[in-house]
Structure formats: structure tokens, C-alpha cells
Amino acid sequence: MITLVGNFKGGTGKSTVAFNLAIWLATQGKNTAAVDLDPQGSLTDVMYVREEMEYAPIVPVFQELSKKTGKEWDEVIVDVGTADLPAMEKALSIAGRVVVPVAPSQADVWSTQRFMDLIRKNCKEGTIVTGLINRADTHPKVTETEEAMEALSMISGLNMQKAYLYQRTAYRRAFSEGLAVFEMMPANKAAGEVWRLSRSLFVTGPAKKKKKNRTKSKK
To answer: What is the pLDDT of residue 218?
Structure first.
């Protein structure tokens, strides 16, 4: 299935989400590819670092997407930015699933409402659309996250994940090293968050999070 990770607003962490999902799927034995349609190229860069460091599994990354791409792989994760709107519309038209990372702010809620209009216009019937609070505040007294969740839950057609991805340094550190957070820091809270999200989206893999060490592929 083709899974598109996107939103109109920048700074939602979509490249980090796309990368962690792609690596998680590959570790579960899925024949997985990534497609980077964002001109910033963050997903391409992190996959290059991963390959240079010889971490396994390797997920190939492409800069074009077609219906044929989805047939060649078990799972395809697409990172798409708003700079190329025609590419985004094309990707939406063939995606089977759309994951919408949203930072907990009113501006991000407004942006998501507009992105949902684009989804309704371009996605085929039956496309799974899932919203995700990303970079949630870890302080229990901060109310913006719950307020954003309440507002997003009212958007028609957007099915919100109950669990959040929180604002944690672990995501940035692992990403810069070309590693999924559950590879670099298997005992970190962030690793558990990614496992819960991945299992909820793809309904596959073992029931409990495995502790994994960094591994290098054999040449």
C-alpha cells in the first residue's frame, strides 16, 4: 500500500515520521520503499546517511511516484511537501493511506482543515486518512495538545490517533544518525511511541516492542 505522510504546514515533523515508519516496516520483513517528493529532501538525506553507515535494513528512496511503484513493493512511504502542489495532488490520488502529522497549535489545526479539503478533492474513495498529534508537549499542565486534539477530532473524515508522538530530543538525535528512534534508543519513550503508532497503522509485527541494537549490513 502507498502511505502518504503530509500536511500543508511545515514544521510538523513529517519527514521524521515517514522515516521511522519506513524503517519499522522494513524491520518487520516488509518489502518497503520510500518516495521523497519534498524539495527539501530530508528523507533522501537521512536514507543516504543510513546507507553510508551500512545500517540494515536499507530502504531505497525514489524521487518519483507512480501506480507501478505501489505494485512493486509491499509498502511505500511517501514524504510530500507543499512546494510542488501537482506532485502532492498526484500522490494523493493514488495513495491508499494518508497520515497527517499535526503540531498542537491553532495554526496547525487551520492548516489541517485546508489539507483535508485537498484530500477530499483528490483521494479515491476508501482512502484511509489518519491524523496524528506530533511534537506534543511533555509537560502535563500544558493544555494546547488536548485542545488541538479536540479540534482535530471534529474535522470530518480525519480519524485521529489516540496516542501522541511527543517533543523529544531522541527523535532528532536518531534521525541525524540515520537511525529510527527504536534502533538507537530502544528503551526510550519515543521508541514505544513509534511502535504503538506503527502497529496501529499497519496492524502487523510482534505484540511487544523488541529491543534492537544498531546493525550493519554485510557487504
So the answer is: 44
Asked if 188 contacts 181 with a C-beta cutoff of 8 angstroms, the reply is yes
Which triple of cell numbers denotes residue 201?
497503522
Radius of gyration of the chain (CA): 16
Which residues, given as ranges, of the chain have pLDDT below 70?
204-219
- As given in the structure block, the three cell numbers for residue 98 are 494518508
All cell numbers assigned to 122 = 483528490
The secondary structure of 69-98 as a DSSP string is: HHHHSSEEEEEE-SSSHHHHHHHHHH-SEE
One-letter identity of residue 7 = N
Domains of the chain, each with CATH number or no CATH: 2-202 (3.40.50.300)
Residue at grid coordinates 522494513: 26
Asked if 24 and 55 touch (Cβ cutoff 8 Å), the reply is no
Q: What is the pLDDT of residues 79-97, one digit of tens each?
A: 998 778 888 999 999 999 9
